[in-house]
Design a protein that fits this description.
The protein is mainly α. It has helices at residues 3-22, 27-31, 41-62, 75-83, 106-126, 146-174, and strands at 136-138, 142-144. The chain is globular and about 50 Å long.
């Protein structure tokens, strides 16, 4: 199987996991923050939508340039890709994460996830045929090409399943 085909299959599986999980929550439950320092599940969904859309933009950028094609990812990024997973540690994101807003509705979350899935599938189809081999810079992990951005999007979605589980546990304890 071609690498980009396997990558998009993994991505679709990760997105489908999030879409399926969304169905089990009421809108009120999605917006409930377990604590002042914790995101609600709705905020987590919003983060995933926004970051995955950003990763898709990075793929588009890579598919239109040969800039930075000789640059490399950081040693820690190489480990992430080797393991196909982020380390199982709490990672504090940028300060802007504190501004992550609550969703407007469950339906909008679902539609946005489906739209991202459709967009990413269209981009993945372009990767193997692209004449461009450019890379763009991740703020902490350095340079990724289009296929690596796609793989990272999946890694990121799976990584946040652990956070979802922690939020679920905190919400259960609050009942």
């Amino acid at each position: 199987m071609e690498k980009s085909t396997a990558l998009i299959q993994d991505f679709n599986k990760a997105v489908d996991t999030w879409i399926k999980a969304l169905k089990q929550y009421s809108f009120a439950a999605l917006c409930k923050q377990p604590s002042e320092k914790s995101w609600s599940l709705g905020q987590l969904y919003m983060h995933l939508i926004e970051s995955t859309a950003h990763f898709a933009e990075e793929i588009k950028n890579c598919l239109g340039t040969n800039e930075n094609m000789e640059e490399e990812m950081s040693p820690s990024a190489k480990q992430v890709f080797l393991n196909n997973a982020l380390p199982d540690i709490l990672i504090e994101g940028p300060a802007s994460n504190k501004n992550t807003r609550q969703p407007q509705s469950k339906e909008i979350l679902s539609k946005k996830f489906l739209s991202i899935k459709e967009n990413m599938n269209a981009l993945a189809a372009l990767i193997p045929a692209s004449d461009f081999k450019g890379k763009t810079k991740h703020p902490g992990l350095l340079y990724f090409n289009a296929g690596e951005w796609l793989q990272f999007a999946t890694i990121h979605l799976r990584h946040h399943l652990r956070q979802k589980k922690r939020i679920d546990t905190l919400l259960q304890q609050a009942i």
